[in-house]
């Protein structure tokens, strides 16, 4: 069993003993998503820590999107719960890049793409190919794309 998955299981046991409903339900849903990912496809397999991290990131993103939807729908109590679940899952993910760090990485990639002959908005794909491996797991895709568009336009 991967170390991250075993940590999730240990934390679930601790939360259940402490009768922490929010943590235990969030970790249960996350472990279920991990198990579902393991058995999907032609044969079941054990996920690596990187793959488990991707599942956790996907679950955290779902929580953020749901919180936004609940907030827009006027259901603040449910939105707060979703935000709390998202924050709990974020603790298992690597620290996200700050806006300044992301801007620096994207600016360097834009310079590389321009040196290779790609310019303007059409260079988006070339820049994303350079940036994505550098920021994998450290910044959300939408945030990266927005930064790339901003720097290519300006």
In short:
The chain is mainly α and 154 residues long. The chain is built from 7 helices and no strands.
Describe the structure.
With 154 residues, this protein is an all-alpha fold. 75% of the residues lie in helices and 0% in strands. The protein contains 7 helices and no strands. It has helices spanning 3-17, 21-39, 49-72, 76-90, 99-115, 124-135, 141-153. The chain starts with a helix and ends with a helix.
Topology of helices and strands:
Layout: H1 3-17, H2 21-39, H3 49-72, H4 76-90, H5 99-115, H6 124-135, H7 141-153
* Helix share bin: over 70%
| Unreliable residue stretches | none
Number of helical segments with 4 or more residues:
7
Q: Which structural category fits the helices and strands?
A: mainly alpha
| Morphology call | globular
* Average pLDDT: 84
List descriptors.
154 residues, mainly alpha, globular
């Amino acid at each position: 069993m991967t170390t991250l998955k075993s940590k999730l299981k240990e934390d679930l046991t601790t939360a259940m003993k402490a009768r922490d409903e929010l943590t235990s339900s969030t970790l249960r849903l996350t472990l279920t998503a991990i198990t579902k990912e393991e058995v999907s496809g032609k044969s079941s397999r054990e996920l690596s820590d990187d793959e488990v991290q991707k599942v956790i990131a996907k679950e955290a993103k779902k929580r953020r999107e749901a919180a936004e939807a609940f907030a827009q729908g006027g259901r603040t109590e449910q939105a707060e719960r979703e935000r709390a679940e998202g924050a709990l899952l974020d603790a298992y993910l690597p620290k996200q890049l700050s806006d300044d760090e992301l801007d620096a990485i994207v600016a360097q990639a834009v310079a590389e793409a321009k040196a290779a002959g790609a310019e303007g908005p059409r260079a988006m794909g070339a820049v994303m190919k350079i940036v994505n491996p550098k920021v994998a797991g450290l910044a959300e895709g939408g945030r990266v794309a927005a930064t790339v568009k901003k720097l290519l336009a300006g």
